[in-house]
Each structure stands twice: as C-alpha cells, then as structure tokens.
Design goal:
The structure is a homodimer. Chain A is α/β, with parallel strands linked by helices. Chain A is built from eight helices and 15 strands. In chain A, strands 3, 4, 5, 6, 7, 14 and 15 form a seven-stranded mixed sheet that branches. A six-stranded parallel sheet of chain A has the order 10-9-8-11-12-13. In chain A, helix 1 crosses helix 2. Chain A starts with a strand and ends with a strand. Chains A, B: This is 2-alkenal reductase (NADP(+)-dependent). Chains A, B: It comes from Camellia lanceoleosa.
C-alpha cells in the first residue's frame, strides 16, 4: 500500500460543559503513507475496522481532569479509543499482514500506523464476532468482570443493583451476577429497555429512571431485603438512593459515573448521606482497569467460555461509518441505546 | 445501701435540627433502691464515677436514624453512654463490692443497677488513671486504633491527615500514626489547638479550619506529595478537599462525621467529587466498633503498653458534676475543647 486518504476525528476546542458539538469535535482527511519504508520498526500499518465508543472519553475532552486521572486529549490531535484493525503493512515480527488486532490507542480514523507493543492479536478461528472483542471481551466486559468478580464479593443470593443496566458495562455486569446466582435489578432510561433487561438479559427486575423519579421508593420496593452490591455507573442522586437502601457490609465498586461527566465537579450533585456508610459499614472503592491487567487472561478465558456456551450474548448498537462518531458518542448520554456503542468504520 | 436519690438525664423531646437544649435534655431525681433484695440476679448496683461524652450521641437524639444505625434514645428514658462505676451491691459472682467497672450502657446518672453481662472489670492495680479507660483505652482509643491499625494500612512514611485532630478520637489516631512512622497533619478549630497538636501531640503540621477556610489550599500546601490515609471524623467540605488531594490507592476509614449530625441528611452538604475515587482508586470504608470486638484484647494490650511507656498520654477535658452533661455535650460541636470530653460525676 502506498499513500491513503484517512478521515480522522480531532478535538478543536475543549468542552467545558455539556456535550461536545461540531464546534469541538471535527473530522478531517489526512494523507498517510503506508508504504513499507514509512513504517517505523516495531510498528504496523492498520486498516481500522471497528471502534469502541465509551462514556469515559467525555472526561478527557474537558481540558481539566475531574476525576479519572486519564491524560486529556490534546487539541488538534486525533482522538483515540479502543479499536480493532487489520494489519496491512508490518515492521514487527509478531504481526503479519492480514492479522486482526485490538489497539487500545487507536485513532478514531480509517487508517493508522501503530506501535506493535500495545496490540493484541485476535484468534479469528475462534469464530467469535469481531465487535465482541470491544464489548463483552473488551473494555466493557473487563470493567464489568473486575467490578463483579474481583471487588463485588458476590455470593449466591446476593442482592445486586446495577445502574445504566442496558449500557455496555451494565449489561455484562448483570449477566455475570445472574451467572453467580444473584438476584439482579437494573435501572435504565426507557420502558423498552426495561422490557429488554427483563426478557432478554435475564434481570429479575428493572425500572425506568425517567418515569420512576423517586429513586429511593423505586429501590426500596424492589429490594425489600436491601442491596448487597451496587455496581455504580451513574453517581449523584442514584448513589444517594442506594445508600438509603444498603445492607450491612455492602460493596460499591465504582468504575465511572456517567451522570457526572458533563459538568465541572463544583457543579455536580453532591452525595449527602455518606454517613450511612458508617452504620452499615459500606465499602466504596474506585477502580481503574490498568491496575488489574494481571487478571486479563483469567477474564478472557472465563468470558470466552461464557460466549461459546451462549451464556453471555454481546448486544451492540452499531453506528455506520467513521462520520458517525459524534452522533454515536452523544447518544450514550441520552438513554437512546441498547448495548455497547460501536462504530463499524466501513459498513 | 438502701434507697438513694440519683440524678439522671433523660430525653423529653427529639432534636430535629441543631444542638439539643434544655427543652430536649432534662435532669430529674429518681429514688433508686440499692438494697440486696432489689438487685436482680446477675446484676450489680453501681455508683457512677465517670461518664464518656461522645459526638455519636447526637445521632441517636433525632428520633430518626440518619446514618449510624444505632437505636434512637427513647423519650422520657434515661439516656446512656459509656461510663465507669464502682460496685456498691452485687448479685453476680464475677463482681465484688468495691470493683471498678466499665459499663457500655451506663445511664448518664449518679447510680444505676446494671446487668453484669456487659461490664468489664478494671485492674486498678495497673496504676492507669480511671478516665483513661474512657479515653485512649476506651471508645475513642479503640475507634482510633481500628481506623489506623486495622483499616488504614499504614506504612512508615505514609502521609496521614486527621480531621477533628484534637478531639478524643483524632488525638489518639494521630499519635498511633506517628508511632508507625507516618507524617501526620491535623485540622482543628482554634489556633491554641493547632499549637498543642504541633507542640504536645507530635503532629508534623496542623491548621485551624476556622481561619484557613479554603480547605483545598490548606491541604495541598501541607501535602505536596498527596494524602495516603484520611482518618475521617468530619464529612462534608473537608472530605471534598481531601478527595482533591488524595494519592493513588488512598484509604479513608469512616468512623463518624461530626459536621453532619445536626442536620437531616437531605439538608447536609453533599460531596460532589466522588468521581475522584475512580481515577485514584480510593477505598472509603465505614466501620462500627461492634464488628471488631474480637480485636479488643489486641487493642488493650498494645495501648496499655504505649501508656505505660508514656508514648500515648490521654488528654481529657473534664466537666464537673452530672449537671454539666448538656454543656459538655454541646461543647464538642463548638471547637472549644482539647481532648476527650469526660464528666466526673462527683468532683
């Protein structure tokens, strides 16, 4: 391959409040040489096939860190996410043309040249659809697994509550908890998704937080015996309601808080009842996947098993074409999706 | 002994907001028979000598539980606290007249008849002053010890911040952290106490939260390398400031939040930056002493050793006479004390 034209998304202005618009995120075409003599040693050229769209990206578009401690995107640089690509040129002995790889630092673009150090090869002979590697076998699935399996201390019969339950992480977390014999209830943003959670995802119960706005009542009704584990994806008022309904020794793994990303921290809803953590001896614990990478192999093995046995089915909301990034990203904040948001670069 | 007149404090109305007044807490005289045939089996009659006055009592004067899960005081009943008494009559083989005991459910009164099951005998031959058994060897000391030794995961060189540092719990917690080789900074409510913390209690630094009201700045100045352990006694804005200055993997044991007790939870200051717990992988954990009673022996042994070696000196603020309870209790919320508040029933 010689020179290709590659469309890529870049950040032209930081997003101080609210959602990004076309004033902040812009698409441009760049010419990229994929010729062998343009690829540095230990690098490969990739045609990008799939891109994972995740809420945490919002927290690194602000220009100031407000909680996640991930470096902010640089202005006028291509923004990056987890992606899957096919090797179309290689200067690394571990990768051959045609290999399909996961790239944790993929530009949101059509092509790239990437350091081989961070790539992980996908065994396409396993017959697992590629988007699954960005979903239950990717960032979302691993986040769910660490929260539920490593930090949640689940037992059969534990009462588990999951917010953003139909999203990429919540969906897998709920399934994992069900597979452990727990009673699982989820909150989500539409009646249609409530139905899906109960009928397709195996949740014992679910509610729509847009119509049942008294979260305290919604939870006490569904957890007459209290909440043992809250898998926190939301923050704010939902966390307060949970703290009013927790059992002694409850666990709250924190992986992110989608309700909090669009505001500076000083503008956010405070949580007023942390004192409940004392009497109920609650443990709340933040986690970042980087600290659990030594468990990634265990995760992959367990999750591949579940997928092959049909026990976990990855649900995706696929957006078509690299042009759809802005729309697909903002959709996550409006309760309009079911499942993990993924872009198919060339539909 | 026959019939004695005993003054006792009782709750005549629940305290919905703010501090209790003489409208809520009242003193009355009751006639109490201490004659042998008036004492039930497995009970003893006690002359009460010392009473421990602690902030958590506020949380059980409201008539509604707002976090600590301790049963509320009953209206018109004598209120109870930790106390030390001398046995003046006995129907239990384990206790003789003249024994001195700690009673975790002592009425705030001059005399009582108590179940022997909950009493713990003090070895007066050890030569430790009796008030110490309500201070560093009592509830305050055990709270400090569990937070620092069991949950804090301290290492030599850890950066430790303690709020309400000159209070009963904070004082001992700071000393324990210093004995483990940590760098310890405290916040307190007066310049005089700042000086005491630095000069007498061995704190490396301290600040007055009434004059340094930008807590974020006060902490970032004193913790250029960040906070590893925050021993939380306060809640609200101070917790927010800590979460803006924590290190990766920081620990926050929660034993109580004195800034929060005087309000219903819906009126309290919310904590808006819990998202920081994600990126920094912070663990926040509430604890109640009841869950750690299997460690009480370890605690007593270690703490008695420190006291005998002069490594921990119990500082008390002693109020005189049972009549002083209301004044002594409210004093804890106005930054006016140094050390543990204790009543000497008969000065």
């Amino acid at each position: 391959m010689a020179v290709v034209e590659s469309k890529e998304w870049y950040l032209s202005a930081y997003v101080s409040d609210g959602l990004p618009t076309s004033d902040h995120l812009k698409l441009r075409s760049v010419n990229l040489s994929l010729a062998a003599d343009s690829i540095p040693d230990q690098h490969v050229a990739l045609e990008i096939l799939w891109i994972s769209v995740d809420p945490y990206l919002r927290s690194i578009m602000s220009g100031h860190d407000d909680g996640l401690c991930i470096p902010q995107f640089q202005l006028n640089q291509a923004i990056t996410a987890f992606g899957i690509g096919r090797v179309v040129g290689t200067k690394d002995n571990n990768f051959a043309e045609g290999d399909v790889v996961v790239n944790p630092l993929s530009p949101i673009a059509e092509y790239c040249v990437a350091s081989a150090a961070f790539l992980r090869k996908i065994d396409t002979s396993a017959g697992i659809p590629l988007p699954d590697y960005l979903n239950s076998l990717g960032l979302s699935g691993f986040t769910a697994w660490v929260g539920i399996e490593v930090l949640g201390n689940l037992k059969p019969g534990s009462n588990v509550f999951i917010s953003a339950a139909a999203g990429g992480v919540g969906m897998v977390a709920g399934k994992l908890a069900k597979l452990k014999g727990c009673r699982v209830v989820g909150s989500t943003g539409s009646d249609e998704k409530v139905k899906l959670l109960k009928d397709e995802f195996g949740y014992d119960d679910a509610f729509n937080y847009h119509t049942e706005t008294d979260f305290d009542a919604a939870l006490s009704k569904r957890f007459p015996d209290g909440i043992d584990i809250y898998f926190e994806n939301v923050g704010g008022k939902m966390l307060e309601a949970v703290l009013n309904n927790v059992n002694k020794g409850a666990r709250i793994p924190l992986c992110g808080m989608i309700s909090q990303y669009n505001q500076r921290w000083t503008e956010r809803e405070g949580v007023r009842n942390l004192l409940n953590m004392v009497g109920k001896e609650v443990r709340m614990e933040g986690f970042m996947l980087g600290s659990y990478m030594n468990r990634f192999g265990d995760f992959m093995k367990e999750m591949e098993g579940y997928i092959k046995e049909g026990k976990i089915i990855s649900k995706h909301r696929i957006y078509n074409g690299i042009e759809s990034f802005l729309e697909s990203f903002n959709s996550m904040f409006s309760s309009s999706n079911v499942g993990k948001v993924i872009i198919q670069v060339r539909p």
